[in-house]
Amino acid sequence: xxxxxxxxxxxxxxxxxxGFPKESDxxxxxxxxxxxxxxxxxxxLVKNLYLSCDxxxxxxxxxxxxxxxxxxxxxxPISGYGVCxxxxxxxxxxxxxxxxxxxxxxxxxxxxxxxETLFKIEHTDVPLSYYTGLLGMAGMTAYAGFFKVCFPxxxxxxxxxxxxxxxxxxxxxxAKLTGCYxxxxxxxxxxxxxxKNKFKFDDAFNYKEEPDLNAALKRYFPxxxxxYFENVGGKMLDAVLLNMKVHGRIAACGMIxxxxxxxxxxxxxxxxxxxxxxxxEGFIVFGYYxxxxxxxxxxxxxxxxxxxxxxxxxxxxxESGPAALIGLFSGKNIGKQVVAVARE
Amino acid sequence: xxxxxxxxxxxxxxxxxxGFPKESDxxxxxxxxxxxxxxxxxxxLVKNLYLSCDxxxxxxxxxxxxxxxxxxxxxxPISGYGVCxxxxxxxxxxxxxxxxxxxxxxxxxxxxxxxETLFKIEHTDVPLSYYTGLLGMAGMTAYAGFFKVCFPxxxxxxxxxxxxxxxxxxxxxxAKLTGCYxxxxxxxxxxxxxxKNKFKFDDAFNYKEEPDLNAALKRYFPxxxxxYFENVGGKMLDAVLLNMKVHGRIAACGMIxxxxxxxxxxxxxxxxxxxxxxxxEGFIVFGYYxxxxxxxxxxxxxxxxxxxxxxxxxxxxxESGPAALIGLFSGKNIGKQVVAVARE
Lengths: 344, 344
Ligand SMILES: NC(=O)c1ccc[n+]([C@@H]2O[C@H](COP(=O)([O-])OP(=O)(O)OC[C@H]3O[C@@H](n4cnc5c(N)ncnc54)[C@H](OP(=O)(O)O)[C@@H]3O)[C@@H](O)[C@H]2O)c1
Ligand SMILES: NC(=O)c1ccc[n+]([C@@H]2O[C@H](COP(=O)([O-])OP(=O)(O)OC[C@H]3O[C@@H](n4cnc5c(N)ncnc54)[C@H](OP(=O)(O)O)[C@@H]3O)[C@@H](O)[C@H]2O)c1
Known about the structure:
2 copies of one chain form a homodimer.
Chain A: E1 5-13, E2 26-34, E3 44-52, H1 57-60, E4 79-89, E5 99-105, E6 109-112, E7 119-120, H2 137-150, E8 157-160, H3 166-177, E9 181-186, H4 189-198, E10 203-206, H5 213-220, E11 225-230, H6 235-241, E12 244-252, H7 271-275, E13 279-282, H8 292-304, E14 312-316, H9 321-327, E15 336-340
Parallel strand pairs in A: 8-9, 8-11, 9-10, 11-12, 12-13, 14-15
Antiparallel strand pairs in A: 1-2, 3-4, 3-6, 3-15, 4-5, 5-7
Helix pairs in contact in A: 2-3
Bound molecules: NADP nicotinamide-adenine-dinucleotide phosphate (2 copies).
The site of one NADP nicotinamide-adenine-dinucleotide phosphate has 31 residues of chain B, from helix 2, helix 3 and strand 15.
């Protein structure tokens, strides 16, 4: 197979996006690719199996200046986290047949020129797709954000927004395993049921049915919130600030409700940060990847013993990618959104 | 003198305040006081020498529910930090003639029923009034907020709002002594000159003359801000967020621009906390008083060696108290606002 020239379907960004992304902001094109790495290069050539849909990818669709990440290039395939199989390798760390996860293209085959950033997959007794989420970037985000930013203690109250998603469902379960009292918010009855019944949150509510978020939080946390795992921002953050306990902590993981807005929503209650001596801390998972082995050591046994439930929303085929990706911003995904490009 | 009944001028709160406080929200009344403590009590009876005007006192003029501090009582004297001389003591820790600082009444003489919270003044080679600020609450606030919340490093860039005030002037000088690059904002040319010439800030600007605070900060910090010492909140915070460096820290000390507003100003740029991995942390000085001896050990030699400049704005007589206090909210004070009730 290596050395052959084959066709290569790709998801191409049409142009920079403003406002809410649409399916038509991307299109499918078919090019060709040689299934080997150029002579003398240290690249690897991979076959993409599963691609991860992540909210931050929206930012890369904008024309970014001076950001921590680079814009996608209009006319080129977009990229993101994925699980891949090595077809050919010029890099001593990787050989044909290896399974890896990391940054790859939204296409059938990718030439990865900086393979040092890839993680080799050593444990295959769990579904491979898990390495797009639970055992990949989203898992590390939940782990770092909850344990390394919030320093949770047994008995503390934890609130999680976008709680049924890739990151949220894991934070909630890590919090339960820590002995915390955990409540999540999500955008549909089905998701709320999932939180209560599958992920064993202590309680959950549908934020879209709460006209007064402050009142809702007061009802669910009469004594206040010790830890807020922030995934959405805007109005929810403003309401949470009014309900934090003294010395509360907010892990600022993301603010998905703001990503598509030209003018970000107003937050009015920051004085609470002073009055309640709150620590609000932003973090980016990249800085924590050195702790990935430590994370695996914790989480793999929990998965094998059935202590962690994990819900994925797998959409079939690269062609389904654009719809799956933009679905994140209307809450279409139930659990971790994955695109299956190929099964092996 | 002890045991005598004498007249006692007091500053009385007329009624709870809404919006900007006015001089007429307080009035002067004259009662009487016995200059000894009740038989068997552990109270102390003090003569008030200097009273401290502090922005947080505005909050106590409101009808507070469930706050970290109590409301003042309409019809009763207000209270605050002060420097006092013990006239009579039922407490083993204090004796007649001792000098103390801590919570006292805005009146000539006060009966302090919980004297455990008072600090005994051991060093009198510095002006006594300093214990209302540099060697009292404001000093501890600057010390704790800068060193224990921000963890500054040599070479970092520091921005301070309300920089010429009681807390700000000290934070700036601590930052210079730490080897930081320090810029402050203040509300008049006179204050800006003070920052540059007296407190030796690297630069300073008048925020009232900057129609675009974001542009001003970009000019003064082309490479961004490592540490923001937040005294004012609102628009300034919003602009600062756009100019923080990655891994920047914001010590949320106070938000004086918001204390008199019914609806707090909107802040729109909190996404920067995620993107730049900023830590914003509120703190209240009360939690740090156990480190007061450590602070004195650091700062007293610096004062004696002339390494710390300190500007006070002393208004004469208890009658001048209401005007001095409300002056904080229009920036009338140049440096630490003190009311001198008696010199000894
Ligand atoms: N800091 C980091 O390193 C890092 C890493 C990974 C992810 N993140 C952030 O973590 C958050 C969750 O990411 P994820 O991968 O776990 O995504 P996800 O939760 O699986 O999917 C996104 C979910 O966000 C919710 N949502 C969308 N628009 C919303 C709005 N306007 N208001 C409220 N909720 C909205 C939807 O759920 P509902 O149906 O419940 O509304 C949607 O299903 C995002 O903010 C993301 O950017 C940060
Ligand atoms: N967390 C704590 O434990 C703690 C302890 C002490 C103080 N604090 C806080 O620290 C801050 C400074 O206190 P301080 O005692 O040092 O007071 P200060 O700076 O000596 O006096 C207040 C100053 O605030 C400025 N100001 C007033 N209204 C303003 C507005 N609308 N916008 C911008 N600036 C305004 C004025 O200076 P300009 O002329 O420059 O405008 C005024 O001189 C306050 O927010 C206070 O509440 C917190």
